[in-house]
């Protein structure tokens, strides 16, 4: 049945833009989950759901799409026309947003954390509350011994922390993606705010904890969290949440059937911390060691019963082989740019040819189901077979 259509007085050309969504975004909209556009300054906008990030591409539509006023008699049947009714054209659609899921953009998160660090200082203006997120750790009242000058140092005020809301507003990533990244960084959580542990302070605190474990003869396979909190507060004035962050940096948590977490001192984590300390202590500007000397010194630094292995150095240092003695140079993956193109440029400046097994640890933190290791290598590197049949890579 034909019906009359006419342009209304309020018609505006190109007043509407369509948005093409996948099932995930559609479900979020239907369940009233937060879906937000994010951009600051000249950043290209992204769309974030509670656990995914999407790029936004503005594309033109070749055909004309006109929007009509609703059908007053049959609002649930917008395409139903009656002979007597005149439908009004209220707008025109000439473009749409094409959305594609992408890895989260976490560079700004790392920069923001670097601006909000926790370290012990002489500022008496405030301390962070002794609140612990772990169900293993209880609030404990401690006494203070003014005879220990270092132990009397207080944390920086809580104003140096950054809230989750601030991170959500600034970082182009979903809330779950931000939380996942915070979980692998050495951060102190206080309520809904976060601080990154200062690197120098972290090394000192880790050494203090390892010394306490040895002196107290605590079980490495079931660290006593309450006793650790008490000791670290009494000896060094560390708040409980700082003690937990230090434990997490050296141990792996295993959830038990009754809901508790058992913390097991990790040989790999401890070995990598000690290796980092040694490499940073190198007196030469390139922070490199004779490999044999390094391995001997490294072995002497780890707790009794722990081993040091070259595989623990992957993503932490580059081993340079040649006509003379082998050399190891400090080159941590955590210091590299997160942008894949820039990451590969830095890698190939550091070393012209890489074995696949050696470059893989430097790609782990930028690999995702949407950005696999193979796809990154195919896009940014050339591969070929070496003399021994091993897969080698160099710059394109």
Percentage of helical residues?
25-40%
Number of helices: 12
Structural class call reads alpha+beta
Q: Which stretches are low in confidence, meaning pLDDT under 50 for 5 or more residues running?
A: 122-152
Can you give the mean pLDDT? 86
Strand coverage percent: 25-35%
Strand line-up in the sheet with most strands: 1-5-4-3-2
- Radius of gyration, whole Å: 28 Å
Largest sheet: 5 strands, mixed
Q: What is the overall silhouette?
A: elongated
Quaternary state of the chains: single chain
Q: Separation of termini?
A: 63 Å
Total beta strands: 19
Task: Note down, in words, how this protein is organized.
The strands form six sheets. The chain has a five-stranded mixed beta sheet, with no helix packed on it. Strands 6, 9, 10 and 11 form a four-stranded mixed beta sheet that branches. The chain is elongated. Residues 122-152 have low confidence and may be disordered. Helix 5 crosses helix 7 (240-250), helix 6 crosses helix 7 (240-250) and helix 8 packs across helix 9 (291-301). Strand 15 (317-320) and strand 16 form a beta hairpin. It is of the alpha+beta class and 396 residues long. It has twelve helices and 19 strands.
């Amino acid at each position: 049945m034909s019906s009359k259509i006419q342009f209304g007085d309020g018609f505006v050309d190109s007043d509407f833009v369509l948005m093409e969504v996948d099932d995930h975004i559609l479900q979020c909209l239907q369940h009233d989950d937060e879906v937000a556009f994010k951009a600051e300054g000249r950043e290209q906008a992204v769309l974030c759901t509670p656990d995914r990030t999407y790029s936004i591409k503005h594309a033109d539509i070749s055909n004309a799409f006109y929007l009509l006023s609703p059908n007053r008699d049959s609002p649930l049947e917008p395409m139903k026309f009656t002979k007597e009714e005149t439908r009004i054209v209220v707008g025109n659609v000439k473009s749409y947003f094409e959305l594609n899921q992408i890895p989260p953009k976490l560079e700004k998160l790392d920069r923001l954390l670097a601006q909000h660090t926790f370290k012990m200082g002489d500022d008496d203006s405030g301390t962070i509350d002794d609140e612990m997120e772990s169900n293993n750790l209880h609030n404990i009242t401690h006494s203070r011994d003014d005879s220990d000058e270092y132990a009397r140092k207080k944390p920086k005020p809580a104003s140096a922390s950054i809230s989750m809301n601030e991170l959500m507003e600034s970082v182009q990533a979903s809330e779950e993606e931000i939380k996942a990244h915070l979980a692998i960084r050495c951060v102190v959580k206080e309520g809904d705010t976060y601080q990154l542990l200062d690197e120098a302070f972290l090394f000192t605190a880790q050494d203090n904890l390892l010394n306490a474990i040895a002196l107290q003869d605590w079980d490495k396979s079931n660290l006593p969290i309450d006793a650790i909190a008490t000791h670290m507060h009494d000896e060094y004035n560390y708040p409980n949440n700082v003690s937990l962050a230090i434990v997490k940096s050296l141990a792996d948590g295993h959830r038990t059937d009754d809901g508790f977490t058992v913390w097991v001192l990790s040989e790999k984590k401890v070995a990598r911390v000690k290796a980092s300390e040694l490499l940073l202590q190198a007196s030469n500007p390139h922070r490199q060691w004779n490999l044999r000397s390094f391995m001997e010194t490294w072995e002497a630094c780890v707790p009794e019963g722990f081993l040091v292995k070259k595989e623990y150095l992957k993503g932490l240092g580059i081993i340079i082989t040649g006509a003379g003695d082998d050399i190891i140079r400090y080159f941590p993956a955590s210091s590299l740019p997160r942008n894949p193109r820039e990451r590969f440029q830095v890698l190939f400046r550091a070393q012209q040819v890489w074995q696949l097994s050696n470059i893989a640890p430097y790609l782990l933190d930028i690999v995702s189901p949407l950005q696999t290791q193979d796809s990154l290598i195919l896009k940014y590197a050339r591969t070929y077979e070496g003399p021994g049949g091993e897969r080698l890579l160099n710059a394109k």
